[in-house]
Amino acid sequence: MRHVLVVIMAATLAACQSMPPDQAQSEISRATAAWAEGMSRHDIDAVMALYDSDAVLWGTRSAQLRDNPERVREYFGVLRTVPASYKAVVGEQRIRVYGDIAIDTGTYTFSEVRDGKEVLRPARFSMVYHRRDGRWLIVDHHSSALPVQ
Predict the structure, then answer these.
(1) Does 66 fall in a domain?
(2) Looking at residue 38, which CATH number applies to its domain?
(3) Is 3 a member of any domain?
(4) Angstrom distance (rounded) from CA 83 to CA 28
(5) Chain segment 51-67, per-residue pLDDT in tens
(6) What pLDDT score was predicted for residue 135?
(7) What does the alpha-carbon distance between residue 116 and residue 18 come to, in Å, rounded to a whole number?
(8) Which residues are CB-contacts of 83 (< 8 A; sequence separation ≥ 6)?
(9) For residue 35, which of 80, 79, 100, 85 has the smallest C-alpha distance?
(10) Confidence band (pLDDT; 50, 70, 90) for 13?
(11) How much is the pTM?
């Protein structure tokens, strides 16, 4: 009986192990890239699929805290109104992994063409991810315009 208990405990501990940090960082980087790709395709559903149902969003274009899926989706409704040229490109990133929680801090630039001129809106972000059911999902996202220097 004691041997069985030890085997069960060892299996349980092995199952609780987090993935190697390098693998997690790579997955987080791909998730953030998928977010930018969804934004660039104006695909609200693809962007929303990256957010946990408990996610909180402080968006670049809104002073309102979005703290439930309906309000987050409402925020991304802006993708229906931006020009077809609208794109999001991720710049520098600093990804830190703490078990099943990861933080991606960095910059991205939103761009679009208006009246024949490219308009750039550089911003900074922090995305907190939580690994649930084998997927990294955004649980907290803060974005703000990059200050003019």
Answers:
(1) yes
(2) 3.10.450.50
(3) no
(4) 28
(5) 999 999 999 988 899 99
(6) 96
(7) 49
(8) 112, 113, 114
(9) 79
(10) very low
(11) 0.84
